[in-house]
């Protein structure tokens, strides 16, 4: 009998990537909020810098989704994750 905890390294990666994407999405929402705050406070340069960081996160997500696709998608578990952006 196979124990669910005995995942290969690649299966672990297929579990981790959806969590990384979820974490990244929460940061993206925070960044959007703080861009607005910075703009409201007249801090255009700071807002621009945060927006650039946000663009990098979006790009990173694209590459993480590609990696997950190449690996065969997320590993289904007791609490399946389906993150599609």
Task: Give a structural overview.
The chain has 85 residues and is mostly helical. The chain has one domain (11-70). The protein has two helices and no strands. It has helices at residues 9-40, 44-70.
Key phrases:
mainly alpha; 85 residues; disordered C terminus; 69% helix
Helix-strand string: HH
- Strand count, sense and closure of the main sheet? none
Overall mean pLDDT score? 88
When the domains are counted, the total is 1
Q: What's the count of strands?
A: 0
Distance between the termini: 36 Å
Spans of at least 5 consecutive residues with low confidence: 79-85
Label the overall shape.
elongated
- Structural classification: mainly alpha
- Give the strand content: under 5%
Radius of gyration: 17 Å
Helix content: 55-70%
Q: With helices defined by DSSP (H or I, 4 residues minimum), what is the helix count?
A: 2
């Amino acid at each position: 009998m196979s124990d669910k905890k005995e995942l290969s390294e690649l299966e672990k990666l297929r579990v981790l990537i959806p969590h990384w994407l979820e974490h990244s999405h929460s940061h993206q929402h925070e960044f959007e909020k703080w861009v607005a705050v910075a703009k409201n406070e007249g801090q255009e340069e700071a807002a621009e810098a945060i927006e650039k960081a946000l663009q990098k996160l979006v790009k990173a997500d694209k590459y993480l989704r590609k990696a997950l696709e190449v690996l065969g998608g997320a590993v289904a578990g007791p609490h399946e994750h389906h993150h599609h952006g």
